[in-house]
Amino acid sequence: MTEAEKTSRRKQCILNAVSEALEEYDYRHLTVEDIAARAGVGKSTIYRWWKHKSDLVLDAFKEQTAPVFELDFQQSLAFNFKQQLLKLSQALNHPVGRALLVVMAEHREAAGEFFKQYLLPRREQMRKLIQVAIERHEIIAEYPFELMLDTLYGPIHYQIIFFNRIPDQTYIEHLVSLVMQPILVQNSP
Amino acid sequence: MTEAEKTSRRKQCILNAVSEALEEYDYRHLTVEDIAARAGVGKSTIYRWWKHKSDLVLDAFKEQTAPVFELDFQQSLAFNFKQQLLKLSQALNHPVGRALLVVMAEHREAAGEFFKQYLLPRREQMRKLIQVAIERHEIIAEYPFELMLDTLYGPIHYQIIFFNRIPDQTYIEHLVSLVMQPILVQNSP
């Protein structure tokens, strides 16, 4: 194993410990001590890579969701929206996702930076899929698509944070239908 | 002053102290000790009415925003939406609003309960205004209005929490236009 592989393994092990700990208790009670003990490393190892427990949660969420949010270009835009929102809803209901929302609220500036990095590549992929959907004549070509994405993703967070409700498949299907109704080609003039 | 008035005054004074403290430091550093000192009361007085500092933040937000979110039935639905969203955006950017988002994320169950009580009367008012707008022929009569409200309020929270961006008037006007476009009477078939 190269040095880089060893580092990667250890980081992975630490992030797994974060997830494991959060399954047992809330973010408030999460300590770097406990993560270190679970991962079998010293606290200084953790502090070499992460400044604060909030950074660990951001990375644990990233690690856990990286493969989850892949788009399927063979499927329609509507299908992809539904899948993405359902996965998002599930991810935010997972203990790491719950902790993530606390971190986002507590460390807005840091979280804003993180999400710019995390969300920009996803938005880029989404823009490509929208382009493909236009070329496949699924949707109209001219529309404020960026703003439309907010009206899809926003309500998921809103339902979870303000109503403590995890949007289910039915809610998500209604939402996607409502938001996409003006752009579907068969409905356009 | 009656006993009830005295109690009300003291509560008000304590909630003002919460707001004042949050202007100086983050929710994480908020303590019941400091609030008691600022309000000139004993800690036991605070604990008589509130179990946890998070409950104080919920009530401080309620107190601060109660008069802010009144609807204006003389104005159009679109006008009211814009006003509401702008005020919401400002309220969540205020120190008490920032703390509120932390509390919501940390205490989802309690916050869910609180918001059911807090939001239900507002939704009720909003439903009335929608009914009035239908009668005034501003909007069509049949539409999933509840879901539509999520696509208006959701993006405000989403922009703030995930992008650390406070939606401004331009963003809000675009959002309201986009979401209302399918229901405006002049655009209906």
Automatic annotation (TrEMBL), chains A, B:
<keyword id="KW-0805">Transcription regulation</keyword>
<dbReference type="GO" id="GO:0000976">
    <property type="term" value="F:transcription cis-regulatory region binding"/>
</dbReference>
<dbReference type="GO" id="GO:0003700">
    <property type="term" value="F:DNA-binding transcription factor activity"/>
</dbReference>
<dbReference type="InterPro" id="IPR011075">
    <property type="entry name" value="TetR_C"/>
</dbReference>
<dbReference type="InterPro" id="IPR050109">
    <property type="entry name" value="HTH-type_TetR-like_transc_reg"/>
</dbReference>
<dbReference type="InterPro" id="IPR001647">
    <property type="entry name" value="HTH_TetR"/>
</dbReference>
<feature type="domain" description="HTH tetR-type">
    <location>
        <begin position="8"/>
        <end position="68"/>
    </location>
</feature>
<keyword id="KW-0804">Transcription</keyword>
<protein>
    <submittedName>
        <fullName>DNA-binding transcriptional regulator, AcrR family</fullName>
    </submittedName>
</protein>
<keyword id="KW-0238">DNA-binding</keyword>
<dbReference type="InterPro" id="IPR009057">
    <property type="entry name" value="Homeodomain-like_sf"/>
</dbReference>
<dbReference type="Pfam" id="PF00440">
    <property type="entry name" value="TetR_N"/>
</dbReference>
<dbReference type="Pfam" id="PF16859">
    <property type="entry name" value="TetR_C_11"/>
</dbReference>
<feature type="DNA-binding region" description="H-T-H motif">
    <location>
        <begin position="31"/>
        <end position="50"/>
    </location>
</feature>
<dbReference type="InterPro" id="IPR036271">
    <property type="entry name" value="Tet_transcr_reg_TetR-rel_C_sf"/>
</dbReference>
